[in-house]
């Protein structure tokens, strides 16, 4: 049996690369069948390859957030200007607004085109949220922070703490709800009792999440997370500002179409500015990385399952953006056309669900006694 196929956690970069690929594919289409298929693929992969860690239990929160986004998007379409279309489904009583609020209508006629536009947009955003939630529940945030390059370590620390906030809230919520069930308090009878019950859940959850965040910050401070030395900081700042300035001038010249000196068809000034800006940026990263001293215990190796996982996400993006027909990727709303799935889109969905079988399980299955 291959060593890479044994039960082990996958590299966090692989899961994030796969999820970003699915998110890019979802942002490039409004086909509800394709978006629903991408959500199903993310659910299958997340459920089959997530472990028993605290961050793995946060995926349900992202699913509920996706449902809330779709409902809210459709609700806003109905509430504000739902009559943008010839096919009127129903007519709600319109609320009059003052004359200075022009272009905004509350309620009134609700058309099929407006509802579908809200549904498609909300479903696209919900798919992106589900894909990011799948990566957040599959990738170990501590290993993700440890695998970042030294130059991006401080920025990675901020990103990991921010991304891990929702799983941390989910874990605190499950702990508080479990404690309430063990107490078996009296059932809420009046409205005040129901509000008090919600208060006894929200306040402990936020308090527990805040305490855990402060404990994480304190432990990182004790372990010496941060940069040392002012010389490296000054050189990094100077090189970073130089890179930003050179790339800004290059972008301005490129967008403005400024005349340039050409040699064999190559714009000399633009190429020089871009090369100098990128060089200063790379030098800034190298100088910043030298001031960070860290080691990693038992690092996760990059093997062929990680490569296949990233390739699955890249394949889905390629098939959706470059191979599929535009009329299928963006189905018409007015006049309404039924969405469909072609061969490339079906292949994209197949590639999106492949990591559920190509990757090793996160841990050994438990054997019943």
UniProtKB/TrEMBL annotation:
<protein>
    <submittedName>
        <fullName>Uncharacterized protein</fullName>
    </submittedName>
</protein>
<keyword id="KW-0812">Transmembrane</keyword>
<keyword id="KW-1133">Transmembrane helix</keyword>
<keyword id="KW-0472">Membrane</keyword>
<dbReference type="Pfam" id="PF02361">
    <property type="entry name" value="CbiQ"/>
</dbReference>
<dbReference type="GO" id="GO:0005886">
    <property type="term" value="C:plasma membrane"/>
</dbReference>
<dbReference type="InterPro" id="IPR003339">
    <property type="entry name" value="ABC/ECF_trnsptr_transmembrane"/>
</dbReference>
């Amino acid at each position: 049996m291959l060593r890479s196929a044994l039960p082990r956690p996958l590299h966090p970069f692989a899961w994030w690369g796969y999820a970003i690929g699915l998110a890019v594919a979802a942002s490039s289409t409004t086909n509800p069948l394709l978006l629903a298929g991408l959500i199903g693929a993310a659910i299958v992969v997340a459920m089959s390859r997530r472990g028993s860690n605290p961050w793995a239990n946060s995926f349900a929160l992202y699913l509920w957030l996706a449902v809330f986004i779709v409902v809210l998007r459709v609700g806003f379409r109905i509430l504000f200007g739902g009559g943008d279309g010839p096919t009127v489904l129903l007519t709600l009583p319109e609320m009059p607004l003052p004359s200075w609020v022009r272009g905004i209508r509350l309620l009134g006629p609700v058309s099929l085109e407006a509802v579908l536009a809200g549904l498609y947009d909300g479903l696209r955003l919900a798919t992106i949220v589900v894909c990011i939630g799948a990566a957040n529940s599959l990738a170990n945030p501590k290993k993700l922070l440890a695998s970042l390059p030294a130059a991006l370590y401080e920025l990675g620390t901020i990103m990991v703490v921010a991304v891990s906030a929702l799983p941390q809230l989910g874990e605190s919520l499950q702990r508080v709800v479990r404690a309430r069930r063990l107490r078996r308090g009296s059932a809420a009878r009046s409205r005040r009792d129901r509000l008090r019950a919600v208060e006894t859940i929200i306040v402990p959850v936020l308090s527990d999440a805040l305490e855990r965040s402060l404990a994480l910050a304190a432990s990182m401070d004790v372990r010496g997370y941060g940069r040392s030395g002012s010389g490296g900081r000054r050189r990094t700042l100077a090189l970073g500002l130089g890179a930003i300035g050179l790339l800004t001038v290059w972008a301005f010249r490129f967008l403005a179409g400024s005349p340039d000196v050409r040699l064999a068809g190559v714009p000399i000034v633009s190429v020089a500015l871009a090369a100098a800006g990128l060089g200063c940026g790379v030098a800034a990263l190298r100088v910043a990385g030298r001031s960070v001293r860290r080691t990693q215990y038992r690092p996760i190796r990059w093997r062929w399952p990680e490569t296949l996982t990233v390739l699955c996400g890249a394949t889905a993006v390629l098939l959706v953006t470059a191979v599929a027909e535009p009329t299928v990727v963006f189905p018409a709303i007015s006049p309404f056309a039924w969405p469909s799935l072609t061969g490339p889109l079906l292949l994209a969905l197949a590639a999106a669900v492949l990591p559920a079988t190509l990757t090793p399980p996160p841990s050994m299955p438990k054997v019943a006694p």
